From TrEMBL:
Gene3D superfamilies: Cobalt-precorrin-4 Transmethylase, Domain 1, Methyltransferase, Cobalt-precorrin-4 Transmethylase, Domain 2, Periplasmic binding protein-like II. It comes from Candidatus Termititenax persephonae. Keywords: Methyltransferase, Porphyrin biosynthesis, S-adenosyl-L-methionine, Transferase. The keyword rRNA-binding does not apply. One of its GO terms (cellular component) is cytoplasm. This is Hydroxymethylbilane synthase.
Length: 441
């Protein structure tokens, strides 16, 4: 019979969570290794002021990495993202009630709390929601285990506290709930997570039946390159052929339509956006949870002005495993197709990839070559910034429109003449800082 050493924080709630996990694995014996986390030892640290992401997990992580324990059980929302190198989540258990609850003196609901009442919370999101409904309230940083938090209400130190419904339910304290609050909550609230070293496939087999992610699909952030199908990578093609659903941007439209998956346009063009970024993030997450092989197809490279980093973080925070497939970014393709070396020995040793939009955020760093994305509607502003930075008016500027596509065109002009161009198509602007290189571009 398998016997494991299982690390846990030593609070009553944490210990109950371990019991909950192993009640689902009756044939697995375990010995508990209770620990005080850094957060448990330092209750003076406010959780409302961006505490370390591993405030409740660091000691348990170290125990695992030192091989003094086989696995650790956590509230999933306490996990840092990403986990320390060498650790992995073996199982994400189904969520208990993910809602928030108000516990108050005299069972007063939120709307009836006295004006200026002191309300305790440990979450910036909860603080925001409280103040959006009752801006008069005094929000107090809440620390301690559930019993200690309830005592602050019972003793009159606080008029009310906000805590997770599942925490009260797990401890048999549901009768303390005054009301369920209609607040958005942490995406992993209510979930428990089992963490172990990555070199323990034997444990993965034990805990996999508990993992809700076994029915999930997979996610991939895929770079479509500049748009020409032959400049798509072979790896990108594999993911696209296997996809059940493709969420694609405007510049990846022609590539997306050649694949048989369900296609969802989520692009932005000329100020018109199909969906907000928050909605796109959630659509990706829900597609994965529905068991679909999900591809987010982005023009160029996912991590160059494509918000791929935001989408990656959003999914990883929800414990979705994400593959990232690089793509040829527009700066490289535009320069190569226009036969402009972005670097050249003895002449250009540094390159900056910059956003040309919005106009008031345009930057001019001290690099030899400057490449501006999304500058079609801000050429005058870019030109003005470059001239004021000291570049001469005759300095060469090259606009590459629709790089790699049949409609590709290249306009070679100067900084002085740049504002006179009237361009509607997507473009890349390339400028060299040194005048002696102007003839090259």
């Amino acid at each position: 019979m398998v016997s494991l050493i299982v690390a846990s924080r030593n609070s009553p709630l944490a210990l109950r969570q371990v019991e909950e996990v192993f009640s689902l694995l009756p044939l697995i014996k375990y010995r508990l290794l209770p620990l005080s986390s850094y957060g448990d030892k330092h209750k003076n640290i406010s959780l409302l002021d961006a505490p370390p992401p591993n405030i409740f997990t660091k000691e348990l992580d170290e125990i695992l990495l030192r091989r003094r324990a086989d696995a650790a059980v956590h509230s999933a929302k306490d996990l840092p993202c990403p986990l320390p190198e060498g650790l992995t989540v073996l199982a994400l258990l189904p969520a208990a009630n993910p809602q928030d609850a108000l516990v108050s003196q005299h069972n007063l609901p939120l709307r009836k709390l006295p004006h200026g009442a002191a309300v305790g919370t440990s979450s910036p999101l909860r603080r925001q929601e409280l103040l959006s409904r009752r801006p008069d309230l005094q929000i107090v940083a809440l620390r301690g285990n559930i019993g200690e938090r309830l005592q602050k209400v019972d003793s009159g130190q606080l008029a009310a506290i906000v805590v997770a419904v599942c925490a009260l339910q797990r401890l048999g304290l549901s009768d303390r709930i005054t009301e369920i609050l209609p607040f958005p909550t942490h995406p992993l609230q209510g979930h428990l997570a089992v963490v172990a070293r990555t070199d323990r496939p034997d444990l993965r087999k034990i805990f996999q039946p508990l993992d809700v992610r076994r029915t999930w699909g997979r996610a991939a952030l895929v770079g479509a390159g500049p748009g020409h199908p032959l400049l798509l990578t072979r790896q990108a093609d594999i993911y696209l052929r296997q996809a059940d659903i493709i969420f694609y941007d405007d510049l990846a439209r022609d590539i997306a339509k050649t694949y048989s998956a369900t296609k969802v346009y989520v692009g932005k063009r000329k100020g018109r956006q199909a969906y907000s970024q928050e909605t796109i993030n959630e659509k990706l997450y829900q597609a994965v949870k529905a068991g679909r092989k999900t591809v987010r197809l982005k023009g160029g490279d996912p991590f160059i002005f494509g918000r791929g980093g935001e989408e990656l973080e959003y999914l990883q925070q929800r414990l979705v495993s994400v593959a990232v497939v690089p793509g040829i970014t527009a700066a490289l393709s535009a320069a190569a197709l226009a036969q402009i070396p972005l670097t050249k020995r003895g002449q250009a040793a540094s390159v900056a990839l910059l956003s040309g939009h919005p106009a008031h955020k345009i930057k001019v760093p001290q690099t030899d070559t400057l490449v501006y994305y999304m500058a079609g509607t801000t050429l005058a502003a870019v030109s003005g910034k470059l001239l004021r930075s000291g570049l001469p008016p005759p300095a060469a500027a090259v606009c590459v429109l629709n790089a790699s596509l049949p409609a590709q065109s290249i306009i070679r002009t100067t900084l002085r003449q740049l504002p006179s161009l009237k361009i509607k198509d997507p473009l890349i602007l390339i400028v060299r800082r040194t005048a002696e290189n102007d003839a090259e571009i």
